[in-house]
Write a structure and sequence with these properties.
By secondary structure, this protein is an alpha/beta fold. It is built from 10 helices and 11 strands. The protein has a domain of 47 residues. Strands 1-2-11-10-3-6-8-7-9 form a 9-stranded mixed sheet, sandwiched between helices. The protein has a two-stranded antiparallel sheet with strand order 4-5. A hairpin with a 2-residue loop joins strand 1 and strand 2. Its EC number is 2.1.1.-.
């Protein structure tokens, strides 16, 4: 490589870093909601995601990694309060099974057509806001489940985002495949539904003009960060349920393991330059994953208890040692 080419390489990377720093200094102070700077590279804002994202300057964030409320109603106050009190509501509070205590799980099969339409409208509004806030070529990783992913993912494409595939998290749980309730002995050889052994994460990208190489130089986005020089990022990740030690640090009902989140977060910024946003930050696990891989990240959530939980959970989660494979 000649000196002119090396100087050009330094120039565009330096410009990307300067833009990143400028955006970071602005967006971590946006909005009137209470905020906590978890570290120099991570900020948590107590705010509604759709309202806050619409306050962002256009083209100010570079990637989104989020695990939203899949069906919305499970985090309505009346159902969420029942979950916290242990009385259930839409949340299924299952008994122990073979000596293992099972975590609560929302019963998404009970959603009405009106609730499904509301879910679609919610994610469509979120997607429009994210599209405006993302730089061209910015990627979104959004979690769902096999029952609702078609609605959620369609809402994102209708907002004008490109569907770029899905990451399939292979995870074996104790949930699903149960016999008919109250007639388990009579119908011992019947499963009510297929036992879920996977979790879909939709991958979306904001459209851009020109080539990927041009977009990388201008915005630092457009592709995904490789695992190594010889191994690309892959769309199937085997990852066991969240470990007990992580749940003790961050007792959130839908906590995802650091081993998995760090892989998604790392892949979301192809050059390792930019700002990652989590609209539904919960206990701060995505922010902790970004901290662990050396990225800047900002998160929002409207639940005050989770906001307080993240203050305590962020540092131990970000410093947790996890296996790469």
């Amino acid at each position: 490589m000649g000196q002119a080419a090396r100087d050009h390489d330094i120039d565009w990377k330096q410009l990307l870093l300067e833009r990143q720093n400028d955006s970071w200094n602005r967006i971590r102070e946006i909005g009137v909601g209470q905020r906590h700077h978890l570290s120099d590279g991570a900020t948590y804002v107590l705010a509604d995601a759709i309202r806050w994202v619409n306050e962002l300057p256009p083209e100010s964030i570079h990637a989104v990694v989020t695990d939203p409320p899949y069906g919305l109603i499970e985090y309505e106050d009346k159902h969420h309060d029942k979950l916290k009190s242990g009385s259930g509501g839409v949340w299924r509070i299952p008994p122990s099974f073979d000596g293992a205590k099972r975590s609560p799980l929302p019963r998404f099969t009970v959603l009405s057509q009106d609730e499904i339409a509301e879910l679609y409208s919610f994610f469509n509004a979120l997607a429009y806001g994210l599209k405006q806030a993302l730089v061209p070529g910015g990627h979104i990783f959004v979690a769902s489940n096999p029952l609702l992913s078609s609605w959620t993912f369609h809402a994102f494409t209708q907002a004008g985002l490109e569907k770029r595939g899905e990451v399939i998290r292979l995870v074996q749980t104790l949930r699903g495949g149960d016999r008919p309730k109250g007639a388990e002995q009579e119908f011992f050889d019947v499963s009510v539904m297929a036992r879920s052994c996977w979790e879909p994460w939709g991958i979306f990208r904001k459209p851009f003009n020109g080539t990927v190489a041009e977009n990388l130089r201008r915005y630092g986005t457009g592709g995904l960060r490789r695992i190594s020089d010889t191994e690309p990022f892959k769309d199937v990740i085997q990852c066991s349920p969240t470990r007990k030690t992580e749940k003790e640090i961050a007792p959130h009902p839908s906590l995802k393991p650091q081993r998995f989140l760090r892989q998604l977060v790392r892949a979301s910024l192809p050059l390792g330059i930019g700002i990652v946003y989590d609209p539904f930050a919960g206990s701060g696990s995505t922010l902790a994953a970004a901290e662990a891989v050396g990225y800047r990240a900002i998160g929002t959530d409207r639940d005050g208890e989770y906001f307080e939980l993240a203050k305590q959970a962020f540092e131990p989660l970000s410093k947790m040692v996890v296996k790469e494979k």
